[in-house]
Design brief:
Structural class: mainly beta
Helix content: under 10%
Strand content: 25-35%
Shape: rod-shaped
Radius of gyration: 28 Å
Distance between the termini: 73 Å
Length: 191
């Protein structure tokens, strides 16, 4: 005779990913599934292993969700978790899953700054170089002065340099300009 042995659940493979910059409680793929030879109820959990604290799993459905909101592809592109499926006889099966963090387009930023320029500077004089960042580190940034330059005294180039575009600049006529600079990356994302 053959004796039936109570076997642990066998967790099925799955491909999992999450978009960067999502909040907490976001579903990560479809619910995890398992084969349970004795058709017992399965309770799901994530072992304290590697990146387990970044995710949660619904104990009865097997749906993995985000537990943190700090997913950033440029910082960490893959997380590793170990899922545990425990049947009502306390038999447990585990499986390691790699969760890819999908790179999503992010807006570049231009830092606020203050500078001075002397009146009567020459045409094309470098007034200021803007400090900017793009989380995606893409090439091909473009810059534009979108406000505060109605008189056309300033221009900006692809190196984020603000230069004199019209002279002479006269202190007795203008004592201050407040310029708004917009950065656009090659994915058309703007600050």
């Amino acid at each position: 005779t053959v004796t039936n042995v109570d076997e642990p659940p066998l967790i099925n493979a799955a491909t999992l990913s999450v978009n960067e910059n999502v909040g907490t409680g976001v579903n990560v793929g479809s619910a995890i599934t398992a084969s349970e030879p004795e058709s017992q109820t399965i309770t799901w959990s994530i072992d304290a292993f590697s990146d387990g604290a970044a995710f949660a799993i619904h104990s009865s459905t097997g749906q993995i969700t985000t537990a943190v909101s700090t997913f950033d592809h440029e910082t960490k592109a893959t997380y590793t978790i170990r899922v545990r499926a425990t049947d009502t006889s306390a038999n447990a099966g585990t499986r390691v899953f790699n969760i890819a963090v999908n790179d999503m387009p992010e807006d570049p930023t231009v830092d606020d700054a203050t500078t001075d320029v002397d009146e009567n500077e020459a045409l094309n004089h470098l007034v200021f170089t803007c400090s900017f960042s793009d989380p995606d580190s893409v090439a091909g940034m473009a810059f534009a002065i979108t406000a505060g330059n109605d008189e056309g005294y300033f221009s900006i180039n692809s190196a984020a340099e603000i230069r004199m575009a019209r002279v002479p600049l006269n202190y007795e006529e203008f004592t201050q300009f407040v310029l708004t600079v917009q950065a656009t990356d090659n994915t058309a994302r703007t600050d």
